[in-house]
Amino acid sequence: MRYAIVLQPGQIWQAADGQEPRRSIVDIFKTSILFQADGQSDDVEPVKVTRSEFRRWITDSGATLVGQLDEDASKASPSAELGKRIRALRKAADLTQQQVADVLGVSRAAVAFWETGREGSVNRHLQALASLLGVDAETLLSGQAEHQIDIKATQDEADFLALYRRLSPSRKLHAQKWLERQASPLNIASD
User: Fold this and answer.
1) DSSP 120
2) DSSP run (H or E) holding 146
3) Which domains does the chain have, with CATH numbers?
């Protein structure tokens, strides 16, 4: 019997022979996966392979899922969170995936792709999608309406926040994904 292998960010896989370093999935994209091997230096970018190559490694090495990264393990990646918001707002607007696709000029499969949190052309359609769903792009990305709050921040945090606020919504999504990779437990643990 063959089982589907469901890959998620934060999973830790170990080859059956135990000779290879464990592989921790950093992020998952449309056709590729980023992973870091145990002991990999902070300075080294995660390894990028296709999904099928990673699955083949699992099968060929008899690898098993041995754990989940502890830090923020329950938090989905930004694209998965965005997908959840798109679906929830679409349903709240009583729209089908096909209706959204027709308005945006994309396929129904593209909308389904976005809703499952896989990277696709959502960035190109972010403004129109947000408008169709009755929210602004910032709310669609963050899940929260923008409002003023008082916080105490160091100068570098304030500088970072000021730069982030100047980004377009699609650039904010890219920045969030980059920061998520940089702040992964694998990167932090070596500091």
Assistant:
1) S
2) none
3) 11-68 (no CATH), 78-171 (1.10.260.40)
